[in-house]
Amino acid sequence: MEKQLALNIIHRPELSPEYAERALGGRKDVTDESLGIFLFQQEAAHKNGLKTTIQITYASLFSDEIVKVAKEHNKKYGDEIALSLLGLPCKQFREKYKTEDFCIWMFDEETKKEIIDDCFSLFHQKFGFYPQSTGSYFLDAFCINYIKSKYPSVKCAVATCWEEGPKAYHTCNNSWYTFMDGGPWNPWIPSKINSHCPAVDKDDDSGIVAIPHLSRDLMACFDGNGSNFGTHPQNVLRGMIYYNDNGSIEYPYLYNLIDQYRHLEKYNDGYAYNMMFVGPGWLNKAGRWEAPYELLAKSYEDGMKYYGKLKKEGKLLDLTMAEFADYYRERHTDYATPECALWKDILYGGDKQYFWLADPTKRLCLDFNQGGAIVDLRPYVARIPQKTGIGTDNVYDASYPYLIQINYRAGYFTHYAGAGTIKSCKVSYKGESADLCLCRTFAAFEKTDSGVVITANPVTVTLGGLDIVIKSTFLFEKSGRIVTTREIVNDLQGEEVTIEEYFTGAFGTTEYQADMTKLTLGVGDEKINYTYHGKKISKKQGEKALTAFVDIPDVMTRIEMGGDVDELSVEEGIAFSPVYHLSVKKTLRKGGVTTWLNLLKAN
After folding, report:
1. What count of other Cβ atoms lies within 10 Å of the Cβ of residue 44?
2. In the prediction, which pLDDT does 227 show?
3. Angle, vertex CA 225, rays to CA 168 and CA 170, nearest 5
4. Are 9 and 307 in contact (CB under 8 A)?
């Protein structure tokens, strides 16, 4: 049987359209246009044989016409009627809550509960039942836990918008004061402690299936502005990624992006997911993102035609959000099962490859343009119980912290040697050395009983006239441990080389580093407290296997490195370069070295 892409199409009727309420003050012509756009979106889906999820906003619950249409479409097409916690701003909301704020996760806890109860009660009053799905740009654990406890019918929610961190802030002219970076890019079951983290077991299961706000390009979005690269046709127009020749307009990038998501079934036991979620503000008659309304509308209709074509060919399964929650639970019976994506460059057509993995212990990205270096790492194992909103330490920053993040804290290529966060490997011979970050390669994926295995094509490092051919293999064990093997595959004619696996780390959610003096670094039982003086510990591996480690209280994480090595070391940074280093080395004439990296929760 043909593998099928599971698809959520979500439409959000807004009587106070996205971005328009504050600028235009809820004018009737704008609300009438918004209703018309919602009906256009629904028609575009239905005429291509596709079901939708209608996420009713607070403002729209005051519209008898929208309530009537939702009931009709539910009966005629099988569309789900859901509740959105977006679209709060309207006359009724401002008068009741005396605020210009509108993001549910940014209110204080009592107000969050009051708004949730208000929305759910009004929904029940209008439809006679409570919704099975809800959502927002971001839903923190507090909101999800409260919703699930009081409204147990809810089984699915839009819970984060992938990679909405400092990059999104900068591309909004430093005015978008809400960060939610660091979550999964694909559906997950959120932890009760932190909604970014996949649940570790039944006790940690929040009771819902979470989906991202958009399906985005896992390379272009990570490297640049994610708002230009999504399976939301207006994103593609904003990114100016469409073809115009002699008056014909096509969207090869959009279709390639959808197909790239279809391809992810290869890495996820036959399962692939995609979603499209577009508010009416993106299709307004005045045009948007330098595109006239005619192009906005055409792109939306063409996107729906492509999904409809895939469905007719038996390659797509259109599901409502509630249906998808059941579908996902049926397939995701083991909480430890990772979401995987071996992603290629579909924007520029280059040879670059990223590998993404998310499981209950971590989220990470390997860059095979840099030999398979880890360029993003989030310690989900810590389950940091961060609270978000007014009255907390994270009023607007809901991001899950990183340990490595090359876009915020640089990577191998920095103006100051050793300053960037990354995990990679150095090879040394006769006083010369080279980093595998300088070696471009390609990767292959395999799933084994031991876990996910990524094998990179061998690369050649030439030092002192000696060619050293190295094959790298990365095993992601079900326990969460990362095992790396660097194998020398050519004959070194008896010459000795040193292979050093190293980790240069930091922590935080933005470009700027918090105080590092709480960190403790160590090898075995010898420790140092971080003082910005460049102190170092190095130890030879003895009969008792040693481990290099760092404890980072601010993100409740302990990082350990070890393996079949000769020497282990740790080093603190200086004030100009606030990072830390873990390193393990082995000198050999043939064979290889196997090392491991483990993330642990630290109180």
Report:
1. 22
2. 80
3. 40
4. yes
Alpha carbons 33 and 38: distance in angstroms, whole number: 9
User: Residue 351's closest CA among 257, 448, 227, 443?
Assistant: 443
pLDDT of 26 reads: 52
The reported pLDDT for the residue numbered 22 is 52
Measured CA distances, 33 to 10, 71, 105, 285 (Å): 19, 20, 29, 8
Compute the mean pLDDT over every residue in the chain, rounded to the nearest whole number.
93
Q: What tokens appear for 317 in the block?
A: 């399964």
One-letter amino acid for residue 554 of the chain: D
CB 425 within 8 Å of CB 435:
yes
> Can you read off the two tokens belonging to residue 454?
């990524």
Could you tell me the two tokens for 522? 């160590």
Q: Is the pLDDT of residue 25 over 60?
A: no
Q: Report pLDDT digits (tens) over 556-568.
A: 999 999 999 999 9
Among candidates 528, 530, 523, 512, which has minimal Cα distance to 545? 523
Contacts 24+ apart (CB under 8 A), 329-334: 329/209, 331/269, 331/271, 332/189
Please classify residue 247 by burial: count the beta carbons closer than 10 Å to its beta carbon, then call 0-12 exposed, 13-18 middle and 19+ buried. Answer: exposed
Considering the entire predicted model, what is its pTM? 0.96
Q: CA 88 to CA 92: how far, in whole Å?
A: 9
Residue at token pair 């740790």: 570
CA distance 16 to 30: 8
Q: CA–CA separation, 261 vs 281, rounded Å?
A: 26
Identify the CA nearest to 518 among candidates 490, 493, 554, 542.
554
Cα gap 200→205, rounded to integer Å? 7
Helices (H), 138-244: 141-150, 166-171, 220-223, 233-238
Q: Would you say 565 and 538 are in contact if contact means Cβ atoms under 8 Å apart?
A: no
Closest by CA to 40, choosing from 21, 13, 19, is 13
Identity of the amino acid at 98: K
> Which distant-in-sequence residues (6+ apart) come within 8 Å of 257 by Cβ?
215, 217, 229, 230, 231, 236, 346
Q: State how far the Cα of 596 lies from the Cα of 580, in Å rounded to an integer.
A: 18
pLDDT at 20: 53
